Amino acid sequence: NRARLTGVVFPQVGVTAQKTMRLLPASGRKARQKVVVGDQDGVVTCFGIKKGEAVPVFKTLPGQKIARLELGGALNTPQEKIFVATGSEVRGFTKRGKQFLSFETNLTESIKAMHISGADLFLCASYIYNHYCDCKDQHYYLSGDKINDVLCLPVDKVNCITPVLACQDRVLRVLQGSDLLYEVEVPGPPTVLALNNGNGGDSGEEIVYGTSDGKLGLIQISGSKPIPKWEIGNEKKRGGILCIDSFDILGDGVKELLVGRDDGVLEIYNFESADDPALQYDHALSESIASIQGGCVGKDGYDEILASTYSGWLTGLTTEPVHREGGSGEELKLSQEMQSKISSLRNELEHLQIKVLQEREKYQQSSQSSTAVSSVPAFSVNDKFTLNKDDASYSLILEVQTAIDNVLVQSDVPIDLLDVDKNSAVVSFSSCDSEPNSNFLLATYRCQANTTRLELKVRSIEGQYGTLQAYVTPRIQPKTCQVHQYQIKPLSLHQRTHSIDHDRPMNTLTLKGQFSFAEIHSWVVFCLPEVPEKTPAGETITFYFQNTFLGTQLESTYRKGEGCFKSDNISTISILKDVLSKEATKRKINLNISYDINEESVRHTLKLIHPKLEYQQLLAKKVHLIDALRELQVHEGNVDFLLPKYRSILEEADQLLEEYKRQPAHLERLYGMITDLFIDKFKFKGTNVKTKVPLLLEILDGCDQDGLIAFFEAA
């Protein structure tokens, strides 16, 4: 039975960060709750709803931007004290808006995540975790990668303080005091943590996590080891998860899981079977959902889901019916309350339009005066540049607090722009002169009115590195633009992984020289994505990577004065050798480079590439036949005389064309990778085989795996 929920809109605040909106506890069951939200102008706003209108309770003065907002109070009492993290300070307010706490922490960076349990305060900056009790420092931990969220298991249930950190390297770190108790590997970089059912479940040990690649899971954090309960993939390719709450919106006595994603999708999962949650309801908003809460806000007795979006809109989905059926007829009549609400909104809109015209006139007059000073309007851009494992492409998501006019994308390295279904912008390409200006891509996206979020997809070529730039121009006057830069790294299609297959044939590159641990770490950061910028603690470190396009792997282990890189793909080793040599030369460091090439690895890599090559060649052949087959169909009237394989091409024509359009230059990229593999194999032997490349391309067109391997071995 699908939930019947209706959209309602509440007031708008400033731009909001993740987890900065909460509902204060109600005074009685099913009584209305107050909404409290903190924005990036540093303002905390608290309001209630009366007769469909927002009634302010309090509003603080602007200040530093608010990174987190949590509710607290003594254990086992209503959690109605409001705590906000702003810069390196935590402030506390009563539900009436009186400030009772201003705690300046000893953190050198801004607070990124916060959790409150009774007198215990858990704070995280980028890499540092701090635990305070009654504002006194208790414990400290330095994480190996960036911390995205923090949580503590309920003390009244588990009888000890068990903090859990969600870290960017796809790991949940469970702490005991200042020490690491154990690590939990999760399928993607965790962005948000929540207690299952709002209280950790029956045991108090259950944590729900959401990842930046849209996966959701439940893990029991027991005293000795983690127990995974369930995991939901992201089959629909939806956005990353930013917020989670538990609330019984369906009124069946069991709390549902409420999920908000960065592509604006709001989801409700219910637990029909005791094991795995099932998606019961979803609703698409136009921008990312920063916070989500379930409660009773608009009308006594009617529950709703409240979501705050990036630009500060508060949107509700209510169980209250918006209309009632009139008499015996089927026509629907609006209630008196709804009519008055529409009337007041119309009046407010007219008033705002007049005000905008007046301000515009005032601006035009002042800008033409002799003493005019031009001011550039400031605007916030929320951007995300991430590698997708499924199709080895990068997603660039740009979200602006106001409507986007256009986005110009420029790259100084060759990259492919891929199609995005959700993208309604009109794209136009400009011709590039790659020689003097290093311009390989110039594309302009013109957005439709009221577009505040734009998603682009690009695929890079490993070994070619540089910068992708996005020039974002919103629909504001005077015209202004922000430039955002994204690094395309030499091994850009590699993604961090927890482990690799050590039985594969591996090639080894060893570097020795007078370099520090921090220097070699900075070179690895330059070469590979998803490596923390901060130099790791300890004397040595190992990272594992997987190539998302080919499935080959890389192991990188290094310390002061020595680095060892192992891969089953010779081209990966070749790229590393070239880039690391160049970086060391820049710093005038002499490197002693040695390598051990495993001949078997070439055959192994070709076998990994071949199924992809065969599939893409077959797809290209089918696509080239479609026009001719359609012409035959028009001339003959039917296609019964065709062989079954040609009939199936006609039946699947739309899907084949869609897939081919989504993956431009895919076959070209595979040809390029095999050519690089061929050149790199012989480069390590000191032989130049570039003259044999045309012959190799002829063999590739024939798509014979044995012939290809034989050519590699005989050349």
Percent of sequence in beta strands: 35-45%
Helix content estimate:
10-25%
Gap from first CA to last CA: 66 Å
Uncertain runs with pLDDT below 50, 5 residues or more? 324-332
How many strands, which pairing sense, and closed or not: the largest β-sheet?
Answer: 6 strands, antiparallel
The CATH class assignment of the largest domain is Mainly Beta
Q: How many domains make up the 3D coordinates?
A: 4
- Structural class comes to alpha+beta
Mean pLDDT: 87
CATH superfamily of the largest domain: YVTN repeat-like/Quinoprotein amine dehydrogenase
Count of individual helical segments: 11
Indicate the radius of gyration in whole angstroms.
29 Å
Q: What do we call the CATH topology of the largest domain?
A: Methylamine Dehydrogenase, Chain H
Tell the overall outline. Answer: globular
Largest sheet, spatial ordering of strands: 40-42-43-44-41-45
CATH architecture of the largest domain: 7 Propeller
User: How many β strands by DSSP?
Assistant: 45
What would you say this structure looks like, in words?
The protein is α+β, with helices and mostly antiparallel strands. The protein has four domains: about 15-240, YVTN repeat-like/Quinoprotein amine dehydrogenase (Methylamine Dehydrogenase, Chain H); about 380-480, Immunoglobulin-like, CATH 2.60.40; about 495-595, TATA-Binding Protein, CATH 3.30.310.200; about 605-715, no CATH class. The strands form eleven sheets. A six-stranded antiparallel β-sheet has the order 40-42-43-44-41-45, with helices on one face. The chain has a five-stranded antiparallel β-sheet with strand order 35-36-33-38-39, with no helix packed on it. Strands 1-28-27-26 form a four-stranded antiparallel β-sheet, with no helix packed on it. A hairpin with a 2-residue loop joins strand 10 (about 115) and strand 11. Helix 6 (about 600-635) crosses helix 8, helix 6 (about 600-635) runs antiparallel to helix 11 and helix 9 (about 665-685) packs across helix 10. The radius of gyration is 29 Å and the shape is globular.
